[in-house]
Specification:
The protein is an all-beta fold and 242 residues long. It is built from no helices and 16 strands. It has one domain: Jelly Rolls. The strands form 2 sheets. Strands 1, 2, 4, 5, 7, 12, 13, 14 and 16 form a 9-stranded antiparallel beta sheet that branches. A 7-stranded antiparallel beta sheet has the order 3-6-15-8-9-10-11, with no helix packed on it. Strand 8 and strand 9 form a beta hairpin.
Length: 242
């Protein structure tokens, strides 16, 4: 199944959510019951060989390629640090500016496992290159690794509740991991899950940005992404070029 756009008022309408008991979300599964009133906006497994609707900051660093018998969306080279200290690579779902959302899929870090700084990131509420949040799924935890980060016109800051060194880090191998990230615009609650879909590994509460685009990326590594789904509450449709 290739990418499908599902409009805000589309055939699937409004979902009331339940969630799987296991740490493996199925394509088409409903997101958790912590959020209601969201619509399925995107479902993309890249099996058509294209990344329609994705907008990378460095297009030549992204491709659709085969891995483990499946077509995936792959970041092939790291970016360079820009105006502020922040993730250097991202590709954004450019058609949907969302407030509340649930974002799920599979991610894999392609950096050497001997590199303890390896990471894959989930970008959300992206507004421009120096205003967005990100989930840093890393191989270890400290003040800047395995965190929820806020980039608000200056170097990123850690905003998650888990103390440095105490968040659960699982991006230690060359395997795909299932992720889920949720944001509740009513109370600013952010939750990030990896493999275990019942217990978040990172949590925060923040309303600094409030809405924006979601995407995939890395701070300074490479990675692969597949089976992406986005449920959301539209803030506005269709971005200008980033």
């Amino acid at each position: 199944m290739a990418r499908q756009f599902i409009s805000f008022v589309g055939l699937l309408g409004v979902f009331m959510f339940a969630f799987l008991d296991l740490g493996r979300p199925e394509m088409g599964a409903q997101p958790p019951n912590s959020l209601t009133g969201l619509s399925l906006l995107v479902s993309d497994d890249f099996e058509d060989g294209h990344a329609q609707g994705w907008q990378p900051n460095i297009p030549e660093h992204w491709e659709v390629a085969e891995e483990m018998g499946s077509l995936v969306y792959r970041l092939t080279a790291p970016g360079r640090q820009g105006e502020v200290k922040a993730p250097t690579s991202w590709s954004i779902l450019k058609d949907f500016d969302v407030a509340s959302f649930v974002f799920t899929g599979r991610i894999k870090c392609n950096a050497d496992t001997a590199n303890k700084y390896r990471d894959v990131d989930i970008i959300f509420h992206y507004q421009d290159p120096i205003h967005f949040y990100y989930i840093h799924f890393g191989a270890f935890s400290d003040q800047v690794h395995n965190i929820i980060g806020l980039v608000d016109g200056k170097d990123r800051v850690k905003i998650n509740y888990e103390p440095p060194g105490q968040s659960i880090a699982r991006m230690v191998d060359e395997q795909f991991h299932y992720f889920k990230v949720t944001y509740n615009s009513e109370n600013g609650e952010i939750k990030a899950y990896l493999d275990d879909m019942k217990t978040p590994v990172l949590t925060a509460t923040d309303k600094t940005l409030g809405h924006g685009y979601v995407g995939l990326g890395s701070f300074d590594d490479t990675g692969s992404f597949d089976d992406i789904q986005l449920w959301g509450k539209i803030y506005k449709n269709k971005a200008e070029d980033f």
